[in-house]
Amino acid sequence: MSIPVSTSDDNFFTVISSLIENFGSYSRVRGSINDDWVDRLNHLYTVVLLVIFAVIISTGQYVGDAIQCWCPAEFTDAFVDYTKSYCWIANTYYIPMTDVIPVEIRKREDKQITYYQWVPLILLFQAFMFKFPNILWTSTHELSGLNLDKIVSMAEETQLGSPDDREETIKNIAHFLTRWLEAYREYKLNFLVKLRQRSSRMCCFLCSRRQGTFLTGLYVFVKMLYVANVIGQFFLLNAFMATDYTVYGLEVLNSLASNTVWQESPRFPRVTLCDLQIRQLQNLQRYTVQCVLPINLFNEKIFIFLWFWFVFVAACSCINLLSWFYRFIFSQAHIDYVTKYIRWWDSIQTKQDRKLCQKFTKEYLRDDGFLVLRVIAKNSTDLVAGDLLHYLWKAYKEKNEVKNKEPADVGSNVHT
């Protein structure tokens, strides 16, 4: 079992070709285990909900009677069927029963309801928008040079194996991570390199594999897409329904607080009007019929549920994004996290040990290594992350001790 480590430089065409190559992969579309529960709340659970709702609405539209119209007595059965089909396609308009129907055609057209035929398609489009950030993440994170999917999968499988297999697997993961961490780093430090390192720390979009910020910048960017998407869903539905959907949930709560009976929303009217013209020779006969939209009974409940669901997802996504911003901006959070696990296996008492731990976190693990450890801990257990960090820390200490002994050995040979 091996994990590929690439050393080629990043470029725009590599990113684009990877997106095209991986977009159609089924494993990419169904998701992966290299994210946290808030990401899955967006790209998995919300997508499943939207697809289920789209299927329910489609069934109601194409299997049952989506619309019923009250037609004049002189209409034959053929005329009734034609009226139903015409009113479903040509849109209806809503005028409350207490209001007078406008005489002017333009005023009637301004009251038209144009969304109900397209609800299944808009729900599927929303599902795609929630899934897109995950597709972007799974299609590009391997450009970091590390197969994060395999790493997290191996870490998760250690919980089911024997103690010997578990220890061997964790050692293999630590070996792969050590190779990856050492393959992408700057071995020549000068003014430009230090300036680039500081810039990548301050702005995650100036990410680079050699600065240890590629995965971090990509991960934060994807989380920003999740937040932008769920907030943008309210504006999308505003445009789709031609109503102020952003306050729909507040209106429902206010209605329930002031009335004990669920009131019909004007956004999803069940009784509407339809104008149709029938040509008879050279004469146009205009009819206004009253129609019932049973499908709006489902639309009303579905979209009120989606309003509260989107508010919940938006709150979780914003809090999650701010927490990851805090972890990546403040380096002390990295040090505290790593120190907590190292103390399980090794004592950090002296000032030199604390300095070495800080150097291990800032210069060896860096942001990308810290992210990998966090993702492993979230998708397996803290014990697995602690064991993995123990082997990384042990290898780093041994390498540091050998490095410190070399000048002393050279000095003693010269003295002899």
UniProtKB/TrEMBL annotation:
Q: Which domain of life is it from?
A: Eukaryota
Sections of the chain in a coiled coil: none
Pfam families on file: Innexin
Membrane topology field: Multi-pass membrane protein
- What InterPro entries does its record include? Innexin
Per the record, its GO cellular-component terms are: gap junction; plasma membrane
Q: What is its main location?
A: membrane
Keywords of the record, alphabetical order, are: Cell membrane, Ion channel, Ion transport, Membrane, Transmembrane, Transmembrane helix, Transport
A Gene Ontology biological process in which this protein takes part is: monoatomic ion transmembrane transport
Record-annotated membrane-spanning stretches: 44-63, 218-241, 302-326
Q: Where in the cell is it found?
A: Cell membrane
User: Could you tell me which PROSITE patterns the record lists for this protein?
Assistant: PANNEXIN
Which family does the UniProt entry place this protein in? Answer: Belongs to the pannexin family.
Q: What does this protein do?
A: Structural component of the gap junctions.
Which PANTHER family does the record match to this protein?
Answer: INNEXIN, INNEXIN-5
Q: What is this protein's record name?
A: Innexin
